[in-house]
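Appendix B. Raw example, untouched.
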Amino acid sequence: MTDSFTHSSRKLLLDTVLRLLLLLCVPWSAFAQSSGEISKLQVERLDDDLVMSAQLQFELPAAVEEVLIKGIPVTFTAEAEIYRERWYWLDRRLTSVQRSYRVSFQPLTRRWRVTATTSAGEGGAGLSLNQSFESLSDALGHIRKISRWRIADASALEPSANYRLEFRYRLDVTQLALPMQIGTLGQSDWNVTLSASKEFSPEAVR
């Protein structure tokens, strides 16, 4: 039993070391963000909800497009967090929500599908919405625009406090099969990441 435990421990240690070596072998330039920006980042109140909108500007790398055309789905993930600013201590995170966009090509119909899945913070964990598009360009146009995404309950905001929205959008390689994840190491084409923040007060978004 001791020998079995020792063998298991050594294997775990070896796996960990190999993963670290893989990361060390990746050029730092590979972690550079793909060119793009977030414009028109807005926060507003809609009835009892706090919603955000944004326009994303980025180009799909050729390597990612090639994978999509082969019929392999690719997922983009949007994350929004709201922090209450505090001068006397670290800012307190009020809420965190996530939404994913799974882009896939349907060879039989020659159409593109986008599946948007919400997080639990949006009042319906696991809810998905499918939409079809004639072209990849149309599908990308859809996922580049976020319109009135519910990110918090407006009643949770204190009128006299100041808040900050932290928004991130990325190509989520963790949703790929493990062999493909390993293959993307060191490939800058697979690092599409955009981020932006916006300060606001409850009075300003009424």
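End of appendix B.
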